[in-house]
Amino acid sequence: xxxxxxxGDSGKESMHIKPVEKFDFFxxxxxxxxxxxxxxxxxxxxxxxxxxxxxxxxxxxxxxxFGLDFLGLVAPFDPDFKLISFTVGVDTYGRILLxxxxxxxxxxxxxxxxxxxxxxxxxxxxxxxxWLVSKVALSFVEVARNVPLLIQIIFWYSVIYAVLPxxxxxxxxxxxxxxxxxxxxxxxxxxxxxxxxxxMTIAAMLVALAGAWFFRRWARRRQDITGRSFxxxxxxxAIIIIFPAFVFLITGSPLAWDIPxxxxxxxxxxxxxxxxxxxxxxxxxxxxxAYLAEAVRAGVLSVSKGQSEAALAIGLRPNKVMSxxxxxxxxxxxxxxxxxxxxxxxxxxxxxxAIGYSDLVAVFMQTSLNTAGHAIEIVGITxxxxxxxxxxxxxxxxxxxxxxxxxxx
Length: 409
Description:
By secondary structure, the protein is of the alpha+beta class. It has two domains: 58 residues, no CATH class; 244 residues, MetI-like (MetI-like fold), CATH 1.10.3720. It has eleven helices and ten strands. A hairpin with a 2-residue loop joins strand 4 and strand 5.
């Protein structure tokens, strides 16, 4: 029922009648939205259950097992490259899965770092007023992004590495110190061997990083209040370097190095990165950095030229104009393509199977499938891994994207 309210105004009364609100299930927007979302979830769950149960029933009729029990079976092969130990005849397909995941994440992580630095550098070079620098950057972009990635991977593996020397004529990358070697088989580098007290140095590094973060935050707040910039780079570098180094020295330098040495027909000791890994890493970095360079260039060009001119007019140096004025305003336009690029890096790493790198696809979806069967489970696990990693990257970068978005008044 409606209510009647009398309001006095200079001796006059006006009548306001409130309309009666009726609840209608099919026309209430909020209820309808929740209902259809719930209905969609039920349909999706039913489709998944139908597919899984139907597949399990058909496999059972054919005498084939369905499930993840095979992950506990002993794997009869040894991956060529692994970050954790593996013993043939003892370890299981579950450990093979872990090795494939770690190898994929390892090359993807290094590719993302290399792509980000190289892509930003080439993107800034594209905007250089120096004709030679800009044309070299343009040539790099046009060549790298117009040659298919698979061809670039095979090029690095078959052509570039073919000109490298044999093991006994390895290139000494340490300029005579005999610490790092490169040959046709791969790269051999020293490997750290931490002592018992090395954890104190790691703890000191974490404390130094936290202190540097708080110092940088204090300097930024001080600048917002006073308008005066405070030097940050040198104090932060000193905090990160000096304190952990001091702890490292007073604890007796608890870190040794395992140096690679030539023994017979190959190197022993240290750490080795196989030919396939380096070829894949270089091809992924070069290919994806070309796309990132164009995204960076587009983001910088989206910033009004008047912003740079105003910054120069108040006395900022060109490098400060780029780092303090242009790039912060270009990030909202550059982050969305970066999200897609990082996701593509992880997915494109699956092309490693073409040159024999032991990624997830090679050791799990190929070798494990051929030896253990269970095609549906193995393919499903592989698809789920790439989907989870892609969604994780997308979620984290979307959070960062919201933070760098410009807030309009």
